Amino acid sequence: MLFLLESFKHLRTRTDLPAANRLHRPLGVLLSMTVASGIALADLPEGPGKAATVRVCGKCHSPERAASLHQSHSNWEETIFKMVKLGAQGSDEEFEAVLSYLSKNFGLETPGPINLNTANEVDLQTSLLLLRSQAKAIIAYRTRNGGLRSMADLQNIPGLDMQKIEAKKARIVF
After folding, report:
1. Same domain for 123 and 74
2. How far apart are the first and last CA of the chain?
3. Do 20 and 94 lie in a common domain?
4. Which of 39, 62, 70, 122 is the most exposed place for a label (fewest CB within 10 A)?
């Protein structure tokens, strides 16, 4: 773990990273202002590390999006390492708090059913491994047509990856 934290420190101080990795920082400030408004705090469980998770992860994306993954401790460690490489910023203590918080609250679990008529975009993406455009297409279809009733309805949605849907059909409810 100490090696990983040292790697975080090293990556944060590198000046040879591509400009694209440095350009997202102003956007991160804007997103963190949105997170600071309290929007992202509603769905995360209370506990040590929550504030650090919102602060560090919320600079680039919704913390709920990351938390919806449910991974092992080592996978969370890899995810954090990847985010640091992409420009995530925080102190060693913050990264350690984020890792502990995510591992404790969003560790591996047996996934439950996903209701395609009530699931939000992030849940559709992470539970069914869909692209954002595909999740939006499902939501648009169910809004337009008064909901989904069967797997056959999904075949009427243009651009939907039916192989991914079929692979997860045991978890799908309507």
Report:
1. no
2. 43
3. yes
4. 39
